[in-house]
Amino acid sequence: LPEEFIKARPIIDTIEAAGYAAYYVGGSVRDTLLGLPIHDVDIATSAYPEEVKALFKRTVDTGIEHGTVMILDHGTGYETTTFRTESGYQDYRRPDSVKFVRSLKEDLNRRDFTINALALKTDGTIIDYFDGLTDLAEHRIKAVGDPEKRFNEDALRMMRAVRFASQLNFEIDPETIEGIKHHGPLLTKIAVERIHVEFVKMLLGQWPSKGLDVFMATGLYQYCPDFKAYQEQLNHLRDQLKRGLSNETAVWTLLASVFDLSWKQVNQLLKDWKSANQLIEDVQVATQAVSAISNHSVDDWLLYQTGSELLTIANEVAQQLDVFAYETPDLLNRYQVLQIHSKKELAVSGQDLMSAGIKPGPQLGQALSFLERQVVENHLNNQTQELLSAAIKFLNEKA
Ligand code: ATP
Ligand code: MG
């Protein structure tokens, strides 16, 4: 067993010693069997939340109403969830009620896909009620039970199916695909933030075209914010993408570039997808850089405005799209040799300009912006005397 499971073993041992059952479950079991690295170890147990809390000194109620208690152990947190069934799902997303049960099988039965419904004992035994091992061996994503019913219960599972396809390079079972075809419209009932998470994970997966293929073929894309108008571009992306993107900024920069969005349209798209403001700004800047890269018009001012991190992302996106791209070191070398990399590095400050007799006010800011650009573009050396004279000359000519 991987080290993470061995480290978590005392938790399970403690629960079992008290007479309850406990297993490793979820993504970590699936990924271990696939030989992939694991992130978080999830534990499922027959003990009720209060019973779990009574067994450990330090716990946090991370989601106690649905049975999840985090156990803190030497700086690591382990999410422990009581076996439960769910019922209701009147809103196509959250169960109306969860019921704690003592049966592992009932708990595994509520899980989304067979490969995610495996349990592992500390002795290495696998519990597999739904042929998850076969599906794992045959690289298949298959809903537990009737896909129509499962997507009707929780529409987010459709997005999870396409994201696992892209992360694992698995095929989605034909009946599960049919289920997605029939239930796509229910995606509009799901919080955009949750769709966002799965969509980004899909494009970060190593085989993004695999997920995009089903995303497009089932029509699922139409029920995501703003995507309906971009069928052609999304299909192009499906055919074009060779590997996963390296981070979320790259994902949205790629989309903005393929959709050919203006600065303002990027803002709208990302607002509709409920993105953070920092992400929006970064994508706007990086998208502008992709366009400059593809036009062979990367100048020093653009390098300066974009910065090394977003230049790397823009170049990665340009490469994926087969529009012109630089060798990344070339682009970064050109950036590195700029005289300054931020306004703070200018050899004069606003204070210096005022000491030289320039009055505070808008023209002070204009003078600084003028110097910034002149230095970035190498028309002036970043030296105090030279910049002071240039500022005075600039303001005299303006007056
Ligand atoms: P990852 O590696 O991305 O964490 P994961 O399979 O662990 O993948 P999680 O979202 O962490 O995914 O969920 C943990 C487990 O909970 C899943 O493996 C699955 O058994 C169950 N699960 C999660 N979301 C759902 C859902 N919407 N419907 C049914 N079961 C779910
Ligand atoms: Mg997980």
UniProtKB/TrEMBL annotation:
NCBIfam families: PRK13299.1
Gene behind this protein: cca
Alphabetized InterPro entries for the sequence: Bact_CCA-adding_enz_type3_sf, CCA-adding_enz_C, CCA-adding_enz_firmicutes, NT_sf, PolA_pol_head_dom, PolyA_RNA-bd
PANTHER family per UniProt: CCA TRNA NUCLEOTIDYLTRANSFERASE 1, MITOCHONDRIAL (PTHR46173)
The Poly A polymerase head domain, residue ranges: 22-141
Assembly with partners or alone: Homodimer.
Domain CCA-adding enzyme C-terminal, first and last residues per copy: 245-390
GO terms, molecular function: CCA tRNA nucleotidyltransferase activity
Additional facts recorded: A single active site specifically recognizes both ATP and CTP and is responsible for their addition.
E.C. no: 2.7.7.72
Catalysed conversion reaction: a tRNA precursor + 2 CTP + ATP = a tRNA with a 3' CCA end + 3 diphosphate; a tRNA with a 3' CCA end + 2 CTP + ATP = a tRNA with a 3' CCACCA end + 3 diphosphate
Domain of life: Bacteria
Binding site for ATP: 27, 30, 111, 154, 157, 160, 163
Pfam families to which the protein is assigned, alphabetical: PolyA_pol, PolyA_pol_RNAbd, tRNA_NucTran2_2
Keywords recorded for this protein, A-Z: ATP-binding, Magnesium, Metal-binding, Nucleotide-binding, Nucleotidyltransferase, RNA repair, RNA-binding, Transferase, tRNA processing
Annotated CTP binding sites: 27, 30, 111, 154, 157, 160, 163
Cofactor(s) in the UniProt record: Mg(2+)
List of residues binding Mg(2+): 40, 42
UniProt protein name: CCA-adding enzyme
Described purpose of this protein according to its UniProt entry: Catalyzes the addition and repair of the essential 3'-terminal CCA sequence in tRNAs without using a nucleic acid template. Adds these three nucleotides in the order of C, C, and A to the tRNA nucleotide-73, using CTP and ATP as substrates and producing inorganic pyrophosphate. tRNA 3'-terminal CCA addition is required both for tRNA processing and repair. Also involved in tRNA surveillance by mediating tandem CCA addition to generate a CCACCA at the 3' terminus of unstable tRNAs. While stable tRNAs receive only 3'-terminal CCA, unstable tRNAs are marked with CCACCA and rapidly degraded.
